[in-house]
Design brief:
Order of helices and strands: HHHHHHHEEHHHHHHHH
Distance between the termini: 55 Å
Number of domains: 1
Helix content: over 70%
Number of strands: 2
Largest sheet: 2 strands, antiparallel
Structural class: mainly alpha
Shape: globular
């Protein structure tokens, strides 16, 4: 191994680490706010990438039918609750978000020539289809169990993962897809040539992390999420809706996952179940951060990306094993250094 190979492997590791960092941040956010270890986080990656690939192939993406189906299911649940509780004014708001929005999205996808749109517009439209699935899934699967134990929430998360993977297989098929790159540019840097698409991934990841930082530090909704993450009961006593916080955290998780899928689709072939493996690596990074620290999770993601890259050179057949083995010493160290504590009281 010479210096050029080391630089190339480092470039791949940093590029992958940037995506894992985004997924790790989403997992930490969701767990801190809702106590859900969100196993299906990677599914948004696959859905975002496959949606753009469908647009470029001139096909109607399966995520459109997912959006319509989940929206209708949420509308039925909310309508029944609103009638039973007598909150008739809430019906119109519920119909607008869960029925009118999916129908408007369907009208746009079916009437516009999406295939001829610029890649950026296709990406934005893909986000518009995938991101609303986050709060819809929270409403259907997790909000009714908000007071359940972490173990019960984990079991539900695994069930949601299998449902989403099965639906993705049904709607997109088993064949893999790849999208057109954002740029064909190459950047000469000494002895190596940097891929322009990789720079897009790293740059977009850094921008999104900065935007999330400003969101949590400067906006009222971001501060509400931070308060809920610190102490859910105290946040509720201060008038912060934990239901709204849960939906917002799932919305951000879906946004991060879908955008990650749009970014990596030109670099690798995406299958209906690809997101699961990517999400697991983000989960390893989140575990390194203790499912609590955003900077530690980002550092763990960079470590996972570099470890995967160099492992693929030395022992490509065992690279996944090596990456996931990283979680063992971390858990052992935390088991000896972390004081045992009960769950946050409601």
């Amino acid at each position: 191994m010479n210096a050029q190979i080391i630089l190339l492997l480092t470039q791949d590791g940093v590029t992958n680490g940037a995506i894992y960092a985004l997924l790790a941040l989403a997992l930490v956010l969701v767990f801190a706010v809702t106590r859900v270890i969100y196993i299906p986080q990677g599914e948004y990656v696959a859905l975002g990438a496959l949606t753009v690939a469908s647009f470029q192939a001139g096909k109607t993406p399966g995520t459109l039918w997912l959006l319509l189906g989940f929206g209708a299911a949420v509308a039925v649940v909310e309508f029944a609750i609103a009638l039973r509780s007598g909150r008739r004014r809430a019906i119109w708001r519920m119909l607008g978000w869960n029925l009118a929005y999916p129908l408007a999205a369907a009208l746009a996808v079916l009437t516009l020539d999406v295939q001829a749109m610029p890649l950026a517009a296709q990406g934005v439209l893909a986000l518009a289809l995938v991101v609303p699935l986050g709060p819809m899934i929270y409403r259907l699967a997790f909000q009714p169990l908000a007071h359940a134990s972490v173990l019960v929430l984990l079991i539900v998360a695994v069930a949601v993962h299998f449902v989403l993977v099965g639906l993705a297989l049904l709607l997109f098929g088993a064949e893999g897809r790849r999208t057109q790159p954002f740029t064909e540019a190459r950047v000469e840097l000494g002895a190596i040539t940097l891929n322009g698409q990789a720079l897009w991934v790293i740059g977009a990841s850094l921008v999104l992390i900065l935007v999330l930082y400003l969101f949590f530090e400067r906006t009222i909704y971001g501060k509400a999420l931070r308060a809920t993450a610190m102490h859910r009961t105290g946040a509720r006593l201060m008038g912060i809706s934990t239901v709204l916080a849960g939906k917002l955290s799932f919305l951000l998780a879906a946004l991060i996952g879908a955008l990650s899928g749009v970014l990596i689709a030109p670099l690798t072939t995406i299958y209906y179940d690809t997101g699961f493996m990517i999400g697991l690596k983000g989960f390893v990074a989140a575990i390194v951060g203790g499912l609590a620290s955003y900077p530690a999770a980002a550092a763990g993601a960079l470590l996972v990306g570099l470890l995967e890259s160099f492992s693929s050179f030395w022992a490509s057949s065992f690279k996944e094993v090596i990456v996931f083995t990283l979680i063992i010493p971390v858990l052992l160290w935390r088991s000896f250094t972390t004081r045992r504590a009960g769950e946050d009281e409601e």
